[in-house]
Amino acid sequence: MLAPLRRGSGDPTTRVDASGEVWWATTTPVGPTTLRLQKDHAGTVTAAAWGQGASFVLDNVPDLLGASDDDSGFVAVHDVVERGRRASRGVRLCASGRVWDVLVAAVLEQKVTNREAWRSWRELCRRFGSRAPGPFDGLWAAPDPLQLRQIRDWEWHRAGIDGARRRTLLAAASVAGRLERAVELRGVAGRELLQKVPGIGPWTAAEVAQRAWGDPDAVSVGDFHLPTIVGTALVGRPLDDEGMLEALAPYEGHRHRAVRYLGAAGVQRPRFAPRMPVRNYRTM
């Protein structure tokens, strides 16, 4: 359920131990905070938090674990979607309750491979973020808007972040407080608010909406692989963005949920699909 919030196995903001205990560091309006989630054999989840924003994070735990997600009215039109729904075993869409952290990560993932973006995410968190409060050593929160605006030009280059993504992040940091209102607006209105920032388009807004408020209908239009995945699964051939939206039309209101079920069903892009090259950031 919390997997969408984790940016690769080396994400410095998240740790999952062998027992399934989850540690998650996040920014809040009052400072970095650490959340620990433990689930017992009966399925009961116990939460504890450290830091000035502990009450903010604890109050949001039910939504983080999908309590506000409502899949009523969802009907699986395709067998593969129904198979993914059964495989999900009632997993709901999580909602972090906060735009900033997921926005930074989403901007870093614009037009680059996950491998590149996750390396930049690790660099930003460890070098410019804050050590997460609490007993878990080695956990970091993402840089808050003030910390991000203090990063020097050459440090952006060292982190493998090009000028376009840097400008987008700085523009978002200058209005970060206002962007948090997107969680309250939700849906199309929330996504449109995010897109008022130069450099944030439909893809980035959807990626944020899926995580910040668990938007069940936010489709990542403009994704490099998604139209091929959806098209191959639902109509038997790769599609473009327009074709993908047409194929997903029966799931209006729950299109992102349908895409998640495709993932749960094990649907992946064909092996012969073109791959986005990994760039050498040192030559940028």
TrEMBL record:
InterPro entries: Alkylbase_DNA_Glycosylase/TA, DNA_glycosylase, HhH-GPD_domain. It catalyses: Hydrolysis of alkylated DNA, releasing 3-methyladenine, 3-methylguanine, 7-methylguanine and 7-methyladenine. One of its GO terms (molecular function) is alkylated DNA binding. GO terms for cellular component: cytoplasm; protein-DNA complex. Its EC number is 3.2.2.21. GO terms for biological process: base-excision repair, AP site formation; DNA alkylation repair. It is an enzyme of class 3 (hydrolase). Keywords: DNA damage, DNA repair. This is DNA-3-methyladenine glycosylase II. The lineage of its organism: Bacteria, Bacillati, Actinomycetota, Actinomycetes, Pseudonocardiales.
